[in-house]
Amino acid sequence: MLTRLSAAAPAFEALRKLNNDHAQELSYADEDRFSLLLERSFFAASIYEDEAFLIAFDQDADYDSPNFLWFRDRFLKFVYIDRVVTAPAARERGYGAALYGALFQTARAAGHTLAVCEVNERPPNPASDAFHARLGFVQAGSASLQGTGKTVRYFVKEL
């Protein structure tokens, strides 16, 4: 069911397409960028190869996302959930919760005590808001991302 990801994964292109189908929420990734995300991640996994995936980084990652850098400026040790998505036909099956559960277990085993993420406020993402609230994430800040038209809210959860 849960598969660790790499650029050599058989479902690489299907997952990149899933990412790009949700670029408004996640950000577009060409082949090189998606490969780099997987290579530098602390945790990357999918469910049934291409129905859902999650990519997360720890505080030491070589990553240029302004959202990731916002957290790194404020917290010493954390796992940053960069992107998580479930294919429309696979929703309401608990895949997001399963991916987060696996990440939290891996993070705790590595000594992490904090998980962090951002959720779009503009454009709104009410499904993600509800999902993160159910998991116990609380808002720690917000920002307008220059040149994107996006406003995000930053969330944290103690593990």
From TrEMBL:
CDD domains: NAT_SF. Residues 13-159 form the N-acetyltransferase domain. The keyword Translocase does not apply. InterPro entries: Acyl_CoA_acyltransferase (IPR016181), Bact_Acetyltransf (IPR050832), GNAT_dom (IPR000182), UCP028520 (IPR016890). GO terms for molecular function: acyltransferase activity, transferring groups other than amino-acyl groups. Signal peptide: none annotated. Keywords: Acyltransferase, Transferase. Pfam families: Acetyltransf_1. Gene3D superfamilies: 3.40.630.30. This is N-acetyltransferase. The lineage of its organism: Bacteria, Pseudomonadati, Pseudomonadota, Alphaproteobacteria, Acetobacterales.
